[in-house]
Amino acid sequence: MKTGSPIYLDHAATSWPKPERVSQSMLEILNGPAANSGRGNYRMAMNAGRTILQTRTALAQLLQVENANDIVFTSNTTEALNLAIKGCLREGDHVVATMVEHNSVRRPLEYLKRTKGIQVDYIPVSAQGVLDMAELKERVTSQTRLVVCAHSSNLLGSILPVEEIGKIAHAAGALMLIDAAQTIGCYTVDVKQTGADMIAFPGHKSLLGPQGTGGLYIRPELELEPLLHGGTGSQSEAVEMPKVRPDQYEAGTLNTVGIAGLGAGIRTVMEYGIEKIYQHEWQLTQQLMQGLLEIKGLTCLGPELGMPRTGLVAFTLEGFDAAEVAFRLDRQYQISVRAGYHCTPLGHMSAGTTGRGAVRASVGYSTTVQEIEALITAMKQIAQ
Amino acid sequence: MKTGSPIYLDHAATSWPKPERVSQSMLEILNGPAANSGRGNYRMAMNAGRTILQTRTALAQLLQVENANDIVFTSNTTEALNLAIKGCLREGDHVVATMVEHNSVRRPLEYLKRTKGIQVDYIPVSAQGVLDMAELKERVTSQTRLVVCAHSSNLLGSILPVEEIGKIAHAAGALMLIDAAQTIGCYTVDVKQTGADMIAFPGHKSLLGPQGTGGLYIRPELELEPLLHGGTGSQSEAVEMPKVRPDQYEAGTLNTVGIAGLGAGIRTVMEYGIEKIYQHEWQLTQQLMQGLLEIKGLTCLGPELGMPRTGLVAFTLEGFDAAEVAFRLDRQYQISVRAGYHCTPLGHMSAGTTGRGAVRASVGYSTTVQEIEALITAMKQIAQ
């Protein structure tokens, strides 16, 4: 599938190409005898239910969650984060977040500031992507209801110490929510290790599933106000959402076809192994940085060479507009990268790129050394 | 695809099988060069954007909407109804709904009763599915903010006079929201004709798209509070959702693959023609009712023979549990129908089937006369 294809380096937005078994699984459930899960007890409806359960179980295994029903499906990370944030915060609550949060965290928080008078502290992050832990410790108090943190910055690529942050949150009696948009599938995200109360994640990035999938892990004892109220196929006579997981948080018809594809994506990731994927992607980012840093006027954002980072490198080139660089990479070199603001204005403030944006190249498990070489060569030509 | 397949008569839950071009369109976008719409200006991202625009445009044509951006994508009807209802109602508002609303309308309303003190009147519907218009006229006053109405009852199959109801709503200064879950794709749902302010609809029922798709039409001047706050790829530096459609209501990554499939489904529907589909389905329901009514102790719910109805017939059989009937149809006859409460407890109150539930058979554009005959024969044998 890759021969003759463009060089795709925007895996942080969505992975591509998907493994072939992803589309196979989707076709099987779309064209095979499968109907609407939980909406009937006939076999076709149960086939749909079984597929959804398989993917839920695979996710539980990946996240080290004991009961798969503590993982609920959403249509993307944004929905998962909205469910988590709006579901747990009440009038006047205090929240601690970081400066590298994506708009999918920041905008729900700002909305609740406006409508429910919550208070939010955004903890500074250095240009290298390092969180100011002293400041965090100071800001998390017994008044804090929620600490929310990107596991890895989608602009800087740095990995945040969510385990340590979670301990600080829990010591203060606060909840810990991890936004695993940039880590699930390419870096260990593990409920046991992190002790997180909630983990929001996408299905279509490093888990290699199709767009339209994502989910939220919710600790068993934690009860959220559902984001969606509606039919569940269970306890239909009740006016309230049934207090049964996953139904309580999954009103309406699920994306059965997408969830089938996600299951196949997760199986691929688990066969490869997360550690191997991380190492592969890290090697590629190091190769890329080494090549790019030879270019005069080019600055790579985030962690320095040799430091841990997820599979993305954002950079600026003096005298060049980010959008122009991306445009030329696309048109002249068939290389797909993303340019612009990456939905994280405070992240750009941390990086010192406010008003300028950045070019971001991001790799996946299938990205090759040759593709990185092609990008380096192209950038050298553009910079001349 | 149908040879040797079970006889599928649960189209009101989800249509099956989907036209072959639906999976073809999905595969093309999944495996072809297409990335994340609106998250980059490179060609692969624009390919995804183009696909989404095509489906949005097809929907606009179907719904007679001038500007396709007034239609926003959701993951199902439930999300569309949650966006519509929670997005327009404020503290203390008055709402008029009907007794045949699905839980996807009733549960959001009951939630807002509890949290925002809204007041709701559910207008009675007769066992034949006829809404008490006199009562409706009385309840809709200048205090009413929203009138919400199922276009067709998912239990009774009756078609509600949404055009007339909309006029009453507008005369009182209220908004009109139509739940088109059971009509879009098999009965005319038209913004121009109905004058509705909002229309919520599924992609995976009579529009023949995959699960995980749906949408909401929102009248141009009407501004809702978004249900999801998050990244839009546009105006990333703003803390608020951009007031640009469709971005304002579409935070997060869309289900590009599903939306591609939905586009193919809509094209199939438009080629067949809505009126032809309605007539085909109506003929089949009449055939089914005629056959079923010969069975002693069997009662069909909703409109009488010869009256308009959408493609579903719910029924009870004296001395038989609905679930048992559905189970036997599935196991002994390979016929898939749904039994139970159909997510509409007040609908069952209208039908007089509270505590008993009902068996529901529902047809699609591809259902055949032979399949209906098979169900009638099976029911005659079961009843003996």
TrEMBL record, chains A, B:
**Descriptive protein name:** Aminotransferase class V-fold PLP-dependent enzyme
As for family, the record states: Belongs to the class-V pyridoxal-phosphate-dependent aminotransferase family. Csd subfamily.
State a single Gene Ontology molecular function: transaminase activity
Q: Where is the Aminotransferase class V domain?
A: 7-375
Q: Which UniProt keywords apply?
A: Aminotransferase, Pyridoxal phosphate, Transferase
Organism ancestry: Bacteria, Bacillati, Bacillota, Bacilli, Bacillales
Against InterPro entries, the record matches this protein to:
Aminotrans_V_dom, Cys_dSase-rel_unknwn_funct, Cys_dSase_SufS, Cysteine_dSase
Q: What cofactors are annotated for this protein?
A: pyridoxal 5'-phosphate
